[in-house]
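Input (Spermidine/putrescine import ATP-binding protein PotA):
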Amino acid sequence: MKQAIISFNNVMKSYDDDVPVLKNISFDIEEGKFYTLLGPSGCGKTTILRMIAGFSEPTKGDIYFEGKRINKVPANKRQVNTVFQDYALFPHMNVFDNIAFGLKMRHLPKEQIETKVKEALKMVRLDGYEKRGINEMSGGQKQRVAIARAIVNEPKILLLDEPLSALDHKLRTDMQYELRELQRRLGITFIFVTHDQEEALAMSDEIFVLNNGSIVQSGTPVDIYDEPINHYVADFIGESNIVDGTMIADELVEFVGHQFACVDGGMRPNEPVEVVLRPEDLTLTSVEAGKLKVKVDTQLFRGVHYEIICYDEAGNEWMIHSTHKAVPGQEYGLNFEPEDIHVMRFNESEEDFDARLESYED
Ligand SMILES: Nc1ncnc2c1ncn2[C@@H]1O[C@H](COP(=O)(O)OP(=O)(O)OP(=O)(O)O)[C@@H](O)[C@H]1O
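Output:
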């Protein structure tokens, strides 16, 4: 791996009451990638961003920028800029003055400021908007001004704290594409904070999933979706069916009273486990042709698919995504392939999980 641009080494943070809001956080951020900190409200995402920006110091542990310890380096001496959730634009200034603000504070020559502001506006596709008042801009345009104001300083890292949460669904999706594209064009490191798993999956090179002050799992969106480490991640990322089971032997798991071939292994014989099956991997067939018998309870039309809820004989609920309609009240067979079954151990650390996967997968 290249030298990390930012490293956290056993970082802990607590406020006055001593209850840690971050517990022993360690990670490396590589230059030029799109990272997302993902987790529910209060899990510590913003606290991590504030420490990278220099607005807050760790209680214990160290933070490094390109290998140098920066715990005590003030915010204005770091090559980091932040785009805040509410944009924090100056409402009484026009677009140009908002973007030029930091450059003026640094007493750059007038012509240089003008060139840089124009370039930044071009980057966010707002050329020609210099003279507009901030209050005459739409939500999406304000968002872009906030980004232009941050990138005009040519930071090595851009921090984005829930920057899309104030936008409506359509604009939010458009901005996801734009931000992803902008990051690729600029080639600078983006660290994006969100509690929206779809947004994280769509935009990131790497995701850190947080819960209660700890990083529970890190990896590419596909890794995290396909191989969630535990119930929390499987439930938080995407839709999941999670049932209790027993790992009989390598590649053989039992749930709902039946044994099924699977592709997982490296557990103790007869170890209690949890089993995840994604709704899009399940199909309904005739009772005779199915691996489990289920009865359809309800179905909702979701546009791209039907969301079908059914129950097996043991009373477990199963969600299925299908382009075919089912009949509520009718019995069906439920089908899935061995590779669609993902088996999780209870309380497995990310380190042990990665080592097991590596030793087990070819
Ligand atoms: N200045 C502070 N003093 C005391 N506690 C704080 C302070 N700032 C944050 N906290 C606490 O730290 C925890 C983590 O907060 P943080 O803002 O990092 O979470 P978050 O994941 O960004 O949440 P959200 O998505 O709601 O913004 C919360 O329990 C919060 O109450």
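The longest strand covers residues 20-29.
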